[in-house]
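In this notation, each integer encodes one residue's backbone shape. One such record reads:

___
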Amino acid sequence: MRGDYQELVDEISAALAAPATLEDRDFGLIAFGAHDSDDDLPMDPVRTRSILGRRSTPAVRQWFESFGIARARGPLRIPPDPAAGVVMGRICLPVRHQGIVHGYVWLLDDGHLADVEVGRPGVRPDPRLEQAMETAARIGALLAAEALAGAELGEMLRAVLTGPPSGRETARTQLRAAMGPAADGPLAVLAVSSWSLDSDSPDSAGTGPVPAPAAVPGAAAVCGLPGFGLGALVRLRTLTSLEPARTAASRLLKSPRAAGAAVGVAMPRKGIEDLPEAWYEATGAARAARADARLGTVALWSEIGPFRMLTALPEAMPADPALSPLLNPANLQLAHTAEVFLDCAGQVARAAAALGIHRQTLYYRLSRVEKLTGLDLDEGEDRLLLHMALKAARL
């Protein structure tokens, strides 16, 4: 299907004699036409970044959306803005299907389209633009069909991951049939901790539009999960390498809908039999990544240490009574000191260096921690309780 997009983009480029680029509604690159030029005009930096990075930046998105492209029903002219890196003007063709915007075709204008009428009340657009809009509508139908197919796969995946046990076997059978041989291959489950809403096309889970699997490298299915974010099933090359899952996670995090999100990656699985267990791991890893910045924005279940045990605790579980005084806002510095001390295995020199304080200051703070909690930090069980309680509080 991606080849169809390229043909249609080339058709638009030929009709207007202008380089054309097709992006989805999140400004992810889908296809682009060649930029043939016999002069020495510079390449437009925004188009170059879009092609090389496969996505436009949030600043560029904000600039273009300020012209109302998400609401437009016909061609729009976008003037150049060198300060924003937009060296050349553009004509934007919104790609819609049944009233919903699915993407944008951008026509680069080095000045030769200045006299092309884009249309206004009482004046029809240039016939070439009308033809291009008809092609854009065909692109919209393809994108809508792709989104629908992805949504159906997503519904199957959602039912397998979090649906009632009574319906999981049916959903698993349907997912296996839809995935074909890939259902028996190496797979990884990803959990994205949040996904922003979009009023133009809300997802049935209330999490906003879900990217089609084709938009996520290696993804077999993507689904929205109420109260969490997104789930994705990614094909792996082997059971020993999660690199394709990392690539998919990075692509998801680049979406403006994933602002502030973290991605958890489960252990690799052979086939789709135990995906619910993989989802448990992926969501646990995502929660751990949100709780501890040292894990980064993409966290593997195999690398989150004690959080593997702590994520089994109920999310609404109250803090241990011994810890409550320490979590008072006035005592958060003491809580941080205690956690770093315990992370350093109780080694005073390491902890003081990590905190950037003198040893005597560390001893003083730890004595205050003992008084507040009633715990003895010379006792292994008290250390264990405090350490795990502090980590659990992060979750």
Summary: DSSP finds twelve helices and eleven strands in the chain.
